[in-house]
UniProtKB/TrEMBL annotation:
It comes from Rhizobium leguminosarum bv. trifolii (strain WSM2304). The lineage of its organism: Bacteria, Pseudomonadati, Pseudomonadota, Alphaproteobacteria, Hyphomicrobiales. This is Ion transport 2 domain protein. Residues 157-235 form the RCK N-terminal domain. Its main location: membrane. It is a multi-pass membrane protein. The chain crosses the membrane at residues 20-41, 75-101. Keywords: Membrane, Plasmid, Transmembrane, Transmembrane helix. It comes from the Bacteria. Coiled coil: none annotated.
Length: 351
């Protein structure tokens, strides 16, 4: 008896909440009962072939009513009017309403930061929200997003809803240094992480957690204090720590007019000529930097400005420097190069 009472209670709760399991059971019962009733009424055209009956049931329940199959006897028509039609419509309406409610709930949860993007890969995660700066960052990331690149994910505190739904998905958290929030943001397979907390301490804590959970992601962090940025560069070489460049730009612009505009154009995704990076794949033979410079200029109309090799960046690289693969080239161009479009094998032939 306790088992039966418990079972009946579960059935009652499922029906009262219109759970998917309850709707499925009701559908099966109503479908089977309709089939048996039509069989008793002698409606051979409807029940002779299970596929034909299922087809008739669905077009009746959805009120489409093609008319190619219909009960012929009076008793069969009474069954259709009093049982099949009202029951089928009720179940179909309940399923449709439940489906729309579920979709709406999922969408609202995503907007409120309760979604789960743990399976996403190759995307960029942005940690922290500062009204103007972060919105601009997300907009620029979206502007450069490739056709097959997933949307970025914002992880932030104290936001009731996604503040930039056109540019990013959103994960809500109580603190930036939250491993669970990073996991929901898909940190394990993220391509890059940008961290900028309310202060340097919060940013540093978020960076340390991100490092532990994102073994392959490139991490970029902004620190208001240049000393903190330098410390992170020394202790965490995997993290690209960025400090404020305002003072440097002001002093340089005073001595070299227009230099601040040059710096802004090199970093702006909206600029005609912007700085990009290009990873060098394993090469069949070493190449001279000067040969690569000329080849890229002639074939792709880009200008090399530097080379990153073994952790050292050279912005005035000599022509005779050898490249063996694994380096990163920095160049100025109106658009990002496709690495697959570069013929590295014949790069040394500049005649």
């Amino acid at each position: 008896m306790p088992f039966i009472a418990s079972l009946l209670r579960r059935v009652y709760l499922s029906l009262s909440e219109l759970a998917w399991s309850a709707l499925f059971i009701l559908l099966v019962i109503h479908l089977a009962a309709s089939y048996l009733l039509f069989m008793l009424a002698g409606e051979g055209d409807l029940v002779g072939n299970p596929i034909d009956f299922l087809y008739y049931y669905m077009v009746t329940a959805t009120t489409v009513g093609y008319g190619d199959l219909s009960p012929k006897s009076g008793f069969g028509r009474i069954i259709a009017v009093l049982f099949v039609l009202p029951g089928g419509i009720a179940i179909f309406t309940a399923v449709l309403g439940k489906l729309l409610t579920t979709i709406g709930t999922i969408w609202r949860n995503r907007m409120r930061g309760l979604g789960d993007y743990s399976e996403r890969s190759g995307h960029i995660i942005v940690l922290g929200w500062q009204e103007g700066q972060t919105y601009q960052t997300l907009r620029l990331l979206h502007a450069e997003r490739q056709a097959n690149e997933p949307m970025s994910v914002l992880v932030a505190k104290d936001l009731a809803e996604n503040p930039a739904s056109d540019y990013t998905d959103y994960i809500r958290t109580e603190r930036l240094a939250d491993a669970d929030a990073l996991v929901r943001a898909g940190v394990a397979q993220a391509r890059a992480i940008i961290a900028r907390g309310a202060n340097d301490d919060e940013t540093l804590a978020a960076v340390l957690i991100a490092e532990d959970h994102a073994p392959n992601a490139h991490i970029v962090a902004y620190f208001a204090d240049d000393r903190t940025a330098q410390m992170v560069k020394q202790l965490r070489p995997r993290v690209e720590a960025v400090g404020s460049l305002a003072e440097e730009l002001l002093s340089r612009a005073a001595r070299d007019p227009g230099s601040s505009e040059i710096a802004a154009r090199l970093l702006s995704a909206a600029s005609t000529d912007t700085a990009f990076s290009l990873p060098v794949p394993p090469l069949p033979r070493p190449l001279l930097y000067g040969d690569v410079f000329l080849r890229l200029k002639r074939e792709h109309n880009v200008t090399l400005v530097g080379l990153l090799s073994q952790g050292i960046t050279d912005l005035n690289c000599r022509d005779e420097v050898l490249m063996r693969g694994g380096e990163t080239l920095y160049y100025i161009s109106g658009m990002r190069l496709d690495p697959a479009a570069i013929a590295w094998a014949r790069m040394g032939d500049v005649s």
